[in-house]
Specification:
9 helices
């Protein structure tokens, strides 16, 4: 029997794989990843003392909407890059729109507030630790996502790793908001985005090895 005939015969007994099975696996892995990050936020950093009150106001949810949207965009981008031939243009455009939107809001908020309030709005009380904390929390969530995404076959593993880093960083930054009381647009646009960008960079490096064929 020829090799091709043997492969065909064996493959006839295999059940067809669901086209969305990998995506479902990644989404399922976000549950333990999120619980891990949430536990570290609660046990190590501590939840903000005014969390209940903050959740009533719009600024808490605006920050969460931005970081959650980045996580969703990272997932979308990862699923596109993980399939050979699929275009990544749409999620990249969405990502650019998100970043430009929050940057524009930050600039508007800065120029419309009194001069003495600008530096406190930009630096807050935790500028030095914000980005490192997001990077660390993202690193805790990353193994779950990278493990599930290994079933993909990306032709651009570095970019796929960056997308996985964006997904985990968006998740980590969203849960970090349960601890961080900073809410101004300039602070979020600079320091949250910096932490997420660092996680994306680390993910890009990891993707070269994790997603290598």
């Amino acid at each position: 029997m020829k090799t091709e005939d043997l492969i065909d015969a064996l493959s006839m007994d295999l059940p067809p794989a669901s086209r969305r099975q990998i995506e479902r696996n990644i989404l399922l892995c976000l549950i333990p990843a999120g619980l891990m990050v949430l536990a570290i936020v609660g046990l190590w950093l501590g939840f903000r003392s005014d969390l209940t009150t903050a959740m009533i106001g719009p600024t808490f949810w605006a920050k969460a909407a931005y970081t959650s949207a980045l996580a969703v965009t990272g997932f979308w981008l990862l699923t596109r890059l993980g399939r050979p031939g699929a275009s990544a243009r749409a999620p990249l455009v969405a990502l650019a729109a998100l970043l430009l939107g929050v940057l524009g809001l930050a600039v508007y908020e800065m120029v419309t507030m009194p001069m003495p309030e600008r530096m406190p709005a930009l630096m807050g009380d935790s500028a030095r630790v914000c980005a490192p904390n997001i990077l660390l929390l993202s690193a805790l969530a990353a193994p779950f996502v990278f493990w599930a995404a290994r079933a993909f076959a990306p032709t651009r593993p570095t970019l796929a790793g960056a997308a996985a880093g964006l997904l985990t960083a968006g998740l980590a930054a969203t849960l970090y908001g349960l601890h961080c009381p900073e809410h101004t647009a300039p602070f979020v646009a600079i320091w949250y985005s910096l932490g997420i960008a660092l996680a994306v960079a680390v993910g890009a490096v990891a993707g070269r090895f994790v997603f290598r064929w």
